[in-house]
Amino acid sequence: MIDLLQAGFGAVFSPYIFILITLGVAVGIVFGAVPGLSATMAIALCLPLTYTMGPAAGLSLLVALFVGATSGGLISAILLKIPGTPASIATVFDGGPLMEKGEGMKALGVGVVFSFLGTIFSIVALMSIAPSLAKVALRFGPHEYFSIAIFSLTLIATLSTGSLVKGIYAGALGFAFSTVGIAPVDAIRRFTFDSPNLNGGFAMLTVMIGMFAVAEVIKIAETGRSMHKSKIATVSMKGVKGFGFSIKEFVGQLPNAFRSSLIGIGIGILPGIGAGTSNIVSYIIAKKRSKYPEKFGKGVIDGVVASETANNAGIGSAMIPLMTLGIPGDTVTAIMLGGFMIHGIQPGPLLFISQGGLVYTIFAALILASVIMLVMEFYGLRIFIKLLAVPKHILLPIILVLCVVGAFGLSSRVFDVWTILLFGFIGYGFVKGGMPAAPFIIGFILGPMAETNLRRGLMLSDGSFMGFLTDPISAVFLLMAVASVGWHFYSSLRSRKGAASKLQET
C-alpha cells in the first residue's frame, strides 16, 4: 500500500498532471462559487477534454474539479447568501449573518479550513474502507449485482425527493431510456425506429450534459430578466491574521467537525443522496447538540463548520461505491463513471487488482487537490469574488457553446448535439414539474447493469427467480430495497396524518 501510494504521488507531482490538478481545482471553485453552476456541470463540460489524456491525467483532472466545486459553493453562500451548490445550502444559514455582522473573513476562513479537513477525513476513509470492500465484492455474481442495482434505485427514489411517485417515475424513465439500442445479451434492436444513430443507444455524456448543463442554462435564462442583481459584499483583509479565527475556536470546533465528517461519510456512501442532504442533516444535529442552539441562524461558526465539513466529507465517501462496486454514489460520480469507461476501465472490485497503481494515483490526486484548494481559496479570494459578478447573458451562451462542442466531440455526430438538446428540454421539464433528476440519471446508469445481471442470473438458475432470493447477499439487498420503500410509505402516511390532525385543530 505504501509503495503504491508513493508511486501515486510520484505520478501526480509530474509537471503535466500537477498543472492539470491546479487548473481543475481553480475551474471547480469557479463552478461551485457561481450560483446556478455545479460540480456536475463542471465535470460534464470537461469530460471531453480527457479523451486525449491518459487515464491518470484524465481522472486526476476530474477529481480536482470535484474537490474544487464542492468547496467553492461556500464563497457565494457567505458573500451573497446564495448557495453556489446544493451542498452549501446550510452554509447560508450562519455564513450570511456572520457576513452581515462584519465577520465575513472569519466565516470564509472557517469554511475553507473545515472544507479541507472534511475532504482529508473522507479520503482516509476511502483509502481504508474501499480495498476491504473490494475484496468482499469479488465474491459477487449476477444475482448480487442485480439486487444491489435494485436497492440503489429504491434508495434514490425514496430519499432524493419528497414524492415517492415522482422519484420512482424518474428512475423508471431513466431505466427506459437506457434500453434504447442493441440488447446486451441477445443483440436485438430495441426502440431504434430503423435509425442507425440509435443502435448504440444514447451516449452517457450527452444525457449528462443535456439533463444538467443545458437544462440549467434554460432554467436560468427563463428567470434571468426577473432576477435582481445581488450586491456582492466586500471582505476586508486588514488586520486579519491567518484564516481569521483563533486556535481556541479551531480546537473548540473539532468535535463538531468530527461528528459532521462521520455524517457526511455515512450519507455519502449511500447511492444517490449526496452532499445536498448531508450538509443539512449535520447542521440540524449540530444545532441539537449545541449548548446555545438559539444562536444558530444568527451567525455562529458552528453552523458553517457543520455544513462545510459534512459536504466535503461526501467527496471521498461518494467514490467508495463507485470504485468498489461500479455504482455511482451521486450524479457527479455518475459522470466520473463515464470518465473511467472512456479510458476502457470498468470500476468495480477487480479495479484494485488490475489497476492498483491507477487507484492510488486517484487517492494521491484527491489529497493534492485538497491542499491546492486550501491555498487557492484563501489567497485567490478577491479573484473569485470578481468572477461572481459575470453577467448571466455573457456566461450562459459560453456554457451552451461548450456543451455543443463537448457533445459533437464525442463521436463527431450532429445527432449527439440534437441529443443534448432533447435531454436538455427533458431536464427542464423535470424542473418545471418538480421531478428529481438524480433518479433519472442513476436509472439510466444502473439500467444496463440491472438488466444484464438479471438475464445472466436467470440463465444461471435455469429461468427461475428463486436464485435471487436463495442467495444470501442478494436476498439481503432485496429485503433492504423493500424496507426502504416501506419506510418511505410509512413516513409519508405519518406526515399526512400529522398534517390532517393539525388542520382539524385549527
Task: Tell me what the structure shows.
This protein is mostly helical. It contains 22 helices and two strands. The chain has helices spanning 2-12, 15-33, 39-46, 55-79, 89-100, 104-137, 142-159, 164-178, 204-223, 247-252, 254-269, 275-289, 301-325, 331-342, 351-354, 356-379, 381-387, 392-411, 414-432, 437-460, 466-470, 472-505; strands at residues 181-182, 189-190. Helix 4 crosses helix 5 (89-100).
In short:
With 506 residues, the protein is mainly α.
Keywords:
506 residues, mainly alpha, two-stranded antiparallel ribbon
Distance from first to last alpha carbon: 64 Å
- Helix amount: over 70%
Main beta sheet strand tally, sense and closure: 2 strands, antiparallel
Oligomer: single chain
Query: What is the number of helices?
Result: 22
Fraction of residues in β-strands: under 5%
Overall average pLDDT: 79
Shape: globular
Helix/strand order: HHHHHHHHEEHHHHHHHHHHHHHH
Record the SSE blueprint.
Elements (H helix, E strand, L loop, with lengths): L1 H11 L2 H19 L5 H8 L8 H25 L9 H12 L3 H34 L4 H18 L4 H15 L2 E2 L6 E2 L13 H20 L23 H6 L1 H16 L5 H15 L11 H25 L5 H12 L8 H4 L1 H24 L1 H7 L4 H20 L2 H19 L4 H24 L5 H5 L1 H34 L1
Antiparallel strand pairs: 1-2
Helix pairs in contact: 1-16, 2-3, 2-4, 2-16, 3-4, 3-9, 3-14, 4-5, 4-6, 4-13, 4-14, 4-16, 5-6, 5-13, 6-11, 6-13, 6-16, 7-8, 7-20, 7-22, 8-20, 9-18, 9-19, 9-20, 11-12, 11-13, 12-13, 18-19
